């Protein structure tokens, strides 16, 4: 009806119907007599023309062997999920039927149960120092075997001397502590015990 109102020629109507059937956009100008469009001067900036991707006339179907070869026909294994507590569900339903409302129980924060952990004796610092010195000696021996002991020798010997100094301090503290306990238990000197 619009074509008749706009007084288009038969050629122009046919041209527009072909565009509609192909799914193309309608032209801005339709020339009345020929299929050739006159060459119009190209604008300075022309936006890129988007072309629709055409679908193939024949659909591409995969053969049955390829379909069966894939994992489309394998069923997923059943993985059970966490079950709900049926007793709680029964109680909730009883409360709803009895009172007409759902009773919301306040969440009780669970305090972590403190188990009696096995008393792990703290490693003796003196023994740790001995192990650290031994590790440094082994490292220095490995570097010597690789021929790189000159780079690390001074550093390692300094660390070993620091560890030894710390061991001496610990040894003095230990001996003083032992001496104090010994003097409390046993009187020092040749004074006779008044209880005897």
TrEMBL record:
It comes from Centropus unirufus. This is EVG1 protein. InterPro entries: UPF0193. Pfam families: UPF0193 (PF05250). It comes from the Eukaryota. The lineage of its organism: Eukaryota, Metazoa, Chordata, Craniata, Vertebrata.
